[in-house]
């Protein structure tokens, strides 16, 4: 929501450095890197529900802080901490899905879950562009807090959400039946084992990244492919305002092409993923790598989209032509994200699903935070045509990765470090 008028903040705070200006948007993604390291393992230990509620409150508090910031450092700190708290749904969501579904049901569930991450980055800038144009950039944060705090979403969360982690649910039921069987007090004989378990849980996402090369390769491929789309999101305002003369509000509408494509990808994935998995099972091909079939099929759409968008915008064709190009990128990026999350849950076990998904979320967020920092220098040096072509060639390098896992997944997935 904030991205379309980030330049207003830069003007208010006297920011002239392009990297710092881009960091105003992407610092949130650095919060999404750090948050999962703590949120995911804590959800495995203490349950999903308490983390959802606490992180929701913290997110709202620091988002409100962004709206009253008086300087660059203050804004960056609040924006980063809001990102840390905002990582909770993205991180714990995969664990919740694993808690309440079987492998043959997870495709549809993951598709529904992905609607939030899809509509947020695509519809937020549309509203944010008009809000910032009318009443200033600070209101993009205030409106977000008002909608979340006083809207039906937060109320529904408090009323209807329930704990799904099996061991926590069982513990609550046991205590309700026999209050004497509560948790051991501090200093009890179980404290050392509890501390070891906590350390193991906290280190699990990093161990997956550092000591599972095959999983790291897949996570890197997804992070790069998916978050190239985030680089585009940060450059849309300048491209469509400077190249096509759009106003701030109208420039926000340029996000809709990617948003519609992402929604289409979610619908297709939700309706076909589980059926495709069942088809593999009937053929005797029962393995977690089957979750990657759709990713392998649609991965080439990402480089195609970059070539299309870059040269269409560079040559000044009608504005609808580059927007169609962005739709290819959005479509392919969704088929990079959703199948891999299901693969991680199925391949490494659902017992610590949130931590498995966290390893993927961390790398995606690192890429999302760093890639936009090179966007403006890249386009300044190479132009829209060759700049996006370079991104397209880089995306092309990762196209074989899902095919590699789909074909040799059982061999590549032998190390289970967590």
Automatic annotation (TrEMBL):
Coiled coil: none annotated. Gene3D superfamilies: MFS general substrate transporter like domains. One of its GO terms (cellular component) is plasma membrane. Pfam families: MFS_1. It is a multi-pass membrane protein. The chain crosses the membrane at residues 20-42, 49-70, 76-98, 110-131, 143-161, 208-230, 250-271, 292-313, 319-345, 357-374, 386-406. One of its GO terms (molecular function) is transmembrane transporter activity. The keyword Cytoplasm does not apply. It is found in: Cell membrane. Residues 1-412 form the Major facilitator superfamily (MFS) profile domain. Keywords: Cell membrane, Membrane, Transmembrane, Transmembrane helix. The keyword Cell membrane applies. Belongs to the major facilitator superfamily. This is Major facilitator superfamily (MFS) profile domain-containing protein. It comes from Aspergillus thermomutatus (Neosartorya pseudofischeri).
